[in-house]
Specification:
Blueprint (H helix, E strand, L loop, with lengths): L1 H27 L5 H41 L15 H8 L4 E8 L5 E9 L4 E6 L2 E8 L8 H6 L10 E5 L3 E5 L9 E6 L6 E7 L6
Helix pairs in contact: 1-2
Length: 214
């Protein structure tokens, strides 16, 4: 539409210039033509009108494209809201996620010197893993499938996490980072992201809800 009006504006401008010189020649020869003069004014007005309409349409189009791009950049599809799994029971997890694809009971030898009876439930073809100790979810592990993150804040937002005032960056190696005291509600004790094979891709994310077991 913009180009259509620009073509009309160009044609009207050319016609205006031609008629102007015809009118000017007639005036210099002392044979003024009111008809040509009026035609010139009409074409000049039309030319200006087409130009204004073209600029308005172009401006509106640019704004629309800009808005779409801006919205696309701002929208970040959440992988999962990790907050709602904090220390919940197996029954509560089933209400949210349904029955697990697999269950595994095992003994977890912690770095704190203790051994715990642990159960791991998996979902999403093993990409979502929930660790139960003492009848509650103490850690959620996500195995990436090519997801990309821009920065640490955006990585947290992919899991529905809003950084709290006391968040602390414990480690950052360039290919992995770990935060503690993550959110304001204290539902998430630790967020640990390890990159995948490509730069800024998510390999593994471990979200810990209770650090006393680790």
């Amino acid at each position: 539409m913009f180009y259509f009006f620009m073509i009309l504006w160009s044609l009207a401008s050319i016609a205006t210039i031609v008629l102007f010189f015809v009118w000017l020649a007639a005036k210099l020869s002392k044979k003024p033509s009111k008809t040509k003069g009026k035609s010139t004014l009409y074409l000049l007005a039309s030319s200006i009108l087409f130009l204004v309409v073209s600029l308005i349409i172009n401006g509106t189009g640019d704004k629309a494209v800009s808005t779409i791009v801006s919205n696309q950049n701002e929208e970040t599809p959440m992988i999962l809201d990790a907050n709602k799994f904090s220390r919940i029971s197996p029954d509560e997890l089933i209400k949210i996620m349904g029955e697990p694809e697999s269950k595994e009971e095992w003994k977890y030898d912690s770095s704190n010197g203790q051994t715990y009876e642990a159960i791991t439930w998996t979902y999403q073809s093993g990409n979502h893993e929930f660790l139960f100790i003492d009848g509650k979810v103490v850690r959620f592990t996500f195995y990436g499938t090519g997801e990309i993150y821009k920065d640490k804040n955006q990585a947290l937002s992919l899991f529905g996490i809003a950084p709290g005032a006391d968040i602390m960056l414990e480690a950052d190696t360039g290919v992995a980072f770990r935060c503690r005291h993550v959110d304001q509600s204290s539902k998430i004790a630790e967020f640990w992201l390890i990159e995948g094979g490509e730069e800024d891709s998510i390999g593994t994310v471990k979200i810990t809800y209770d650090l006393k077991y680790f």
